Amino acid sequence: MKQADILLVNVEIEDVVSNVVIRDNVIESIGEKSADAKEVIDCRKLWVFPGVIDPHVHMRDLAQSYKEDWESGSAAAIRGGVTTVFDMPNNVPPIINTENLELKRKAARKGKLNYLLYLGATNSNRDELRRILDGEPDDIAGIKVFLAASSTNEIMDNVKELRRIFELGKEYNRIITVHTELQKFIAPRYKYPLKIENHNTIRDRKAAITGLEICLTLARNIGNKLYIAHVSTVEELEMIRKEKAIGQNIYCEISPHHLLLDETICPQMGNFAKVNPPLRTKDDNAALWEAISDYTVDTIGSDHAPHHLKEKKCAYSSALSGFPGLETTVPLLATCVNKGKLSKGRMVDLLSRKAAYIFGLNKMNGLKEGNAANLTIIDPAGTDTISGMKNLSKAKYTPFEGRKTKGQVVYTIVKGELFKCEERRKKV
Ligand code: DOR
Ligand code: ZN
Fold it and tell me: What is the DSSP letter of 320?
């Protein structure tokens, strides 16, 4: 028999120490069996997790490849232990029709990652979406709806059409994913002084809460599978909790920055902290933690949204929202595990298993024989200080600048290919 690709020894999976044999992009065996392999890694004292799935990424590329492209984005993901991404459609050109979807598919193939792509809904592209979905594509994560402007995206503000998009999602059994901030609650608030310290007032929490209310009602009436992107407030969590309690098919994503940062960093970080939804308050951070504990939160998505430095280092009103996140999610969350704020099992749920379940990625649901060979291997004792300059993303900044982390990605295995991340880190 030909050599295996990778042999992991001393892997602790649910309290049992095993060997893991990887061959031809498949986890061939987990157990006592060993094999002659091209690469052998001793995983004693390491955490071996199913590959991290980041369900919320903006890879850019196409006309915005100066911000990021699938090659730089893949390098960033791999350094961050991310093996699979779901890419958002607010590109230039936007992924709202077949032609642009084909451009995106071509770009995504340049990367090294597993991926699913989102289709963007607008007030007028329902027939286009139907044509695409008629082809039963297997590389589509779902339909993304933006209820407000945020960087470059088309706003859906026609309520009748929104209902029809939800109906389309139901008809084709596709997830509807929503950025719930509602435009009409944002525009009037531009009366406040335009500075980053007011971002959380200008994009008032009421915008997200009201948009969520509309979507929950639609999903309840139509019977949708609904995925709420980057939930950031106490109120939204409470609404989602109630909705889950009555058995609705709804899922809740949060982002590391809404969990671990709050608006008080704005004076120091300036527009590097500008993101939509905005950084909220410490009470909201606490509510997010509680919602992790009681399983209201399903997934963590980085909302990796790289912009050029020039697009951040400018006046508040013209600065673009968002920042890179692919390289920081895992070390940040591993640090929380090390501090006892989160269990390892819960970290794996939030960063991998639950997304695989929700989006039907059956070959990615945990470390199992026969599953695809996507793994994230972490040295829990590894320490680092987050620095945007070390990013492999084209965006060399981060709102977590200077934060100390304990728990570093040392190997990322994507589709059976081994990447040694520590070496990469040293090279930068
Ligand atoms: O801050 C954000 N940036 N929020 C979004 O919803 C979009 C994203 C982007 O694409 O830049
Ligand atoms: Zn986003």
Answer: P
Q: How far is the CA of 164 from the centre of ligand 1 (A)?
A: 25
Provide the 8-state DSSP code for 352: I
Helix (H, G, I), strand (E, B) or coil at 159: helix
Quote the ligand 1 centre to 380 CA distance (angstroms): 31
294 a catalytic residue? no
Q: Which ligand is nearest to the CA of 148?
A: 1
Ligand at shortest distance from the CA of 147:
1
Digit-coded pLDDT (tens) for 156-208: 989 999 999 999 999 999 999 999 999 988 877 778 899 999 999 999 999 99
Model confidence, pTM: 0.97
**Side chain identity at residue 288, one-letter code:** L
Pocket of ligand 1 (CB under 6 A): 58, 90, 150-151, 179, 275-276, 305, 321-322
Domains of the chain: 49-358 (3.20.20.140)
Q: Are 196 and 273 in contact (CB under 8 A)?
A: yes
Residue owning the nearest CA to atom 7 of ligand 1: 150
Choose the catalytic residue: 54, 262, 303, 349: 303
Cβ–Cβ under 8 Å, residues 98 and 128: yes
SS3 335: helix
Report the alpha-carbon distance of residue 59 to residue 44 in Å, rounded: 34
Strand order in the sheet with 375-385: 47-50, 375-385, 404-414, 417-420
How buried is residue 90: exposed, middle or buried, by Cβ count under 10 Å (0-12/13-18/19+)?
A: buried
Mutate to test the pocket of ligand 1, among 87, 271, 321 (most ligand atoms within 8 A of CB): 321
- List b or e across 297-308, with b for residues whose CB sees 16 or more CB atoms inside 10 angstroms: bbbbbbbbbbbe
- CB proximity list for 205: less than 8 A, separation 6 or greater: 232, 233, 235, 277, 280
Going 11 to 17 to 21 to 27, the CA torsion angle's sign is negative
The predicted-structure confidence for 116-136, as pLDDT tens digits, reads as follows 999 999 999 999 999 999 999
What is the dihedral angle through the alpha carbons of 48, 177, 56, 343, rounded to the nearest 10 degrees? -40
Atom of ligand 1 nearest to the CA of 152: 10
- CA of 305 from ligand 1 middle (Å) equals 6
Task: Give the span between the Cα atoms of 334 and 348, in whole angstroms.
Answer: 10
What are the start-end ranges of the E strands in 214-313?
226-228, 250-254, 299-300
Q: Are strands 4-13 and 82-87 parallel, antiparallel or unpaired?
A: unpaired
Q: Ligand 2 centroid vs 178 CA: distance in angstroms?
A: 10
